[in-house]
Inverse folding.
């Protein structure tokens, strides 16, 4: 029998003693758990000194770059009007030494899910970009971030600038934005046009020390824009607001003003994409802001995919090697709420935080038309006249689809208001001393205009377009091909006593802020290029824009006060025919450049590359097949591999089809400068003014075009539209003065802006030629002789061998062939199975009077019931690979 152990008698404990005992026990448990907690915090890359203080959970703290003990300066303006230094408090969140709830503190560390250092201790040499195409979705574990170190930079803003900034909706969200950036590598900011995110978020980062060499984040603040004019204008505006214009710079194609003092760099997305190809981790940047992501520009989509991996790799290195690498923040800014594709798990896991900013500063009243007009340009004209004659002062912004419509409407306004038509819109006016092509249009005091039925709603139907007004109308254009100095005029105040009227394409839809716009007239249409990857056919279509884009256009009227948007379409059309959002560019553009770029970066399976939206089915495969035929890729065991030729092609800032021609000419040392000039021409495009979409109404005009002076540039006999462009550039380069070049462009109907772009591209390619082939003489200007023409025609034929066509000598023998006044051709090779085999030579071609038997074409354009081949070159069967005829 086992003896029982006596059980000690348990004395009942009173409530007071029991409570004291529970406090003692909790204190003991906390003390025992403290070493483990600190060890876990250390593993999570928190500094030990951040845990030492128990005071002031939120401490106002300001760190100045110079004289830390200097007394703060009041936010006031000096008596002489000089800008004053404006100081601002920031708040630093500290981890308390004595946590009131240990479980909550531990849970907060668990929620952060920081990887241990052993998982991230990778050397720079070990980092590879291959995971980009092998990981379909990002790892569910968020990456660690080094601790945020507080830093503050003073600015020199005037009181006026401070007042303007304080009225912007995004200004009230500064604390929220910076707190989010503190703890997240990727942040999405969603705010409609007018919120101020483009100009203010870079300044928030600037004041937090980003870009300052002495700060914990010394790298540049990079801000991308889809358009050059936006990058240049936004850089200028931010520099003015900061009071330190030398700290803000821009870089666009052929124009860079970046210096050693630059801290904020505005650039086009293509510039950053080129830098990313050379430096995948973007080591010279501390923050990247992708603006206007809602436009779904091809380059922006590619950047989002690449940066989703680059940011992850960069921050892992920053945790494991903080003495060598600093973290990188990514901010994606969108003007619409369509951000689901930006937050997909294949890009970012966990989902990045989303900050929504209020939209317009002022309400905008929408006015729909009762009926949708068939001629939107005529409807826009009548609406402008009504607004100008009946409504209070305020600028008018009119959205049209292209330059042709802008010129047509401007001439009609000039006729109504008794001013000569503006011919300068058909030319690039580079005369800096002139007032510019858009002069003030004085009204006629009495006139009898045509009577037209009003399709507008009741709010404008009561007004008459015949009402007299003595206020002049100041008309300005805004489109991408306009010279920069002319584009900048829309940002200047109009002459006193005039009403500003801006006729623009969708370039004015986002980013740009035109002062004093109170009225928007929106045709609701947009011109977009569509590309068929299987056939190579492409066409421009004028189609309804998206509901999101229409909202962006309307927002232009609410920047300075309550505004009005007059939509030249009915509400039923808006609801039923407008898509919610515009389709991404990646679904309507060739993929060869993207695939070649990804292959160069070591991404073996481009079809697996994480993009916000997938390209059309088979587009990537078709692009790889095209690159295989070019020799840029070669067949591999598992996937096509990039060749040495492909790597050389990828280094050139032109499309693969022309970079191959250039590399081949350089390698053979045959007319290298001539090839560089030709590649420059092809990278810019058709420089002639009258290059427009063809229809039956233009037949007679196009045929008479054969007697224009530009036929002198085609040679006798003409052999190529492309070589005519080249000859135009070579003669342009030989002209020494600016005025003489302007006269030359005027004589031959050339766009001065494009000719300048070709010149700058030629200079760039000359530098690359000199760097890679030092023995080549780059001093003498190339000449286009007969042998040079034949050399280039051979290379063009090889590059365009998939786009060959044979003339139909006897059209009567082809059943169902439409009778047209232009030569008919039959497409050869692969394209014959993809599109209708019969096409017609475009009437703007210089070869139409002497059509060759065999040619290659650059574009296949689909028009209603007809297809045209455009930009053609005469070739010979010996220059083409074997094709199925």
């Amino acid at each position: 029998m086992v003896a029982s152990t006596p059980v000690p008698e348990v004395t009942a404990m009173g409530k007071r003693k029991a409570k004291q005992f529970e406090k003692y026990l909790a204190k003991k448990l906390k003390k025992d758990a403290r070493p483990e907690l600190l060890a876990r915090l250390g593993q999570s890359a928190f500094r030990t000194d951040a845990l030492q203080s128990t005071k002031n959970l939120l401490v106002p703290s300001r760190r100045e770059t110079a004289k830390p003990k200097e007394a703060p300066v009041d936010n006031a303006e000096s008596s002489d009007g000089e800008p004053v230094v404006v100081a601002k408090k920031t708040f630093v969140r500290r981890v308390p030494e004595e946590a009131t709830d240990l479980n909550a503190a531990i849970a907060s560390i668990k929620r952060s899910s920081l990887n241990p250092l052993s998982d991230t201790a990778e050397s720079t040499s070990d980092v590879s970009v291959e995971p980009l195409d092998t990981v379909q979705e990002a790892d569910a574990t968020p990456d660690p971030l080094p601790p945020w170190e507080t830093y503050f930079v003073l600015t020199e803003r005037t009181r006026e600038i401070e007042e303007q900034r304080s009225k912007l909706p995004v200004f009230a969200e500064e604390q929220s934005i910076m707190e989010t950036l503190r703890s997240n590598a990727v942040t999405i900011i969603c705010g409609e046009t007018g919120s101020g995110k483009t100009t203010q978020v870079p300044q928030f980062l600037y004041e937090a020390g980003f870009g300052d060499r002495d700060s914990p984040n010394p790298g540049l603040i990079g801000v991308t824009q889809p358009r050059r004019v936006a990058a240049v204008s936004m850089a200028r505006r931010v520099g003015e607001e900061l009071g330190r214009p030398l700290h803000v710079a821009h870089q666009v194609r052929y124009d860079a003003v970046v210096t050693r003092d630059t801290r904020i760099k505005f650039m086009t997305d293509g510039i950053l994409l080129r830098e990313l190809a050379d430096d995948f981790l973007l080591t010279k940047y501390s923050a990247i802001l992708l603006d206007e992501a809602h436009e779904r520009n091809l380059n922006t989509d590619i950047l989002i995919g690449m940066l989703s991996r680059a940011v992850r790799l960069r921050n892992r290195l920053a945790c494991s090697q903080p003495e060598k690498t600093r973290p990188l923040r990514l901010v994606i800014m969108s003007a619409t709420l369509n951000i689901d594709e930006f937050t997909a798990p294949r890009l970012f896991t966990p989902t990045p935080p989303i900050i929504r900013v209020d939209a317009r500063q002022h309400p905008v009243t929408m006015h729909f038309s009762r009926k949708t007009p068939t001629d939107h340009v005529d409807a826009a004209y009548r609406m402008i006249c009504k607004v100008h004659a009946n409504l209070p002062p305020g600028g008018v912004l009119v959205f049209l689809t292209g330059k042709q419509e802008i010129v047509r409407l401007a001439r009609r306004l000039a006729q109504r208001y008794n001013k000569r038509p503006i011919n300068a819109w058909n030319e690039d006016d580079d005369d800096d001393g002139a007032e510019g092509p858009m002069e003030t249009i004085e009204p006629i005091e009495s006139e009898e205009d045509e009577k037209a039925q009003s399709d507008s709603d009741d709010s404008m139907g009561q007004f008459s377009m015949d009402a007299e007004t003595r206020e002049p109308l100041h008309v300005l254009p805004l489109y991408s091909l306009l010279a920069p100095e002319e584009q900048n005029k829309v940002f200047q105040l109009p002459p006193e006593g005039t009403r500003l009227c801006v006729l623009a394409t969708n370039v004015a839809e986002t980013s740009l802020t035109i002062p004093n716009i109170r009225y928007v007239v929106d045709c609701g249409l947009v011109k977009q290029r569509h590309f068929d990857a299987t056939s190579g056919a492409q066409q421009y279509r004028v189609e309804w824009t998206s509901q999101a884009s229409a909202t962006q256009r309307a927002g232009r009227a609410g920047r300075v006060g309550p505004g009005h948007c007059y939509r030249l379409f009915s509400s039923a059309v808006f609801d039923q025919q407008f898509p919610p959002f515009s389709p991404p560019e990646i679904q309507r553009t060739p993929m060869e450049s993207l695939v070649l770029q990804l292959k160069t970066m070591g991404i073996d399976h481009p079809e697996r590359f994480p993009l916000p939206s997938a390209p059309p089915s088979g587009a990537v495969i078709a692009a790889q097949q095209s690159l295989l035929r070019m020799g840029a890729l070669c067949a591999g065991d598992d996937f096509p591999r990039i060749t040495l030729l492909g790597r050389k092609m990828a280094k050139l800032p032109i499309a693969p089809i022309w970079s191959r021609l250039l590399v081949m000419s350089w390698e053979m040392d045959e007319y290298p400068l001539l090839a560089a000039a030709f590649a420059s021409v092809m990278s810019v495009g058709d420089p002639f003014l009258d290059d427009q979409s063809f229809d039956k109404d233009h037949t007679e005009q196009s045929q008479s075009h054969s007697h224009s002076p530009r036929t002198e540039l085609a040679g006798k006999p003409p052999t190529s539209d492309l070589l005519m462009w080249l000859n135009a550039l070579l003669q342009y380069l030989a002209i020494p003065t600016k005025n003489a070049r302007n006269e030359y462009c005027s004589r031959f109907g050339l766009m001065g802006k494009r000719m300048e772009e070709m010149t700058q591209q030629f200079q760039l390619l000359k530098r690359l030629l000199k760097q890679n082939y030092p023995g080549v003489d780059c001093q003498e200007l190339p000449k286009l002789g007969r042998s040079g023409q034949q050399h280039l025609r051979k290379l063009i034929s090889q590059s365009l061998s998939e786009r060959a066509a044979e003339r139909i000598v006897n059209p009567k023998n082809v059943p169902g062939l439409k009778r047209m006044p232009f030569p008919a051709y039959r497409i050869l090779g692969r394209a014959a199975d993809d599109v209708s085999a019969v096409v017609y030579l475009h009437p703007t071609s210089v070869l139409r009077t002497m059509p060759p038997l065999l040619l290659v074409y650059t574009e296949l354009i689909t028009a209603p019931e007809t297809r045209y081949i455009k930009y053609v070159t005469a070739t010979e069967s010996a220059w083409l690979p074997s094709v199925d005829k």
Observations:
- The first strand starts at residue 58 and ends at 61.
- Residues 41-139, 423-456, 691-707, 830-835 have pLDDT under 50 and may be disordered.
- Residues 376-583 form a domain with the Rossmann fold fold (CATH 3.40.50.300).
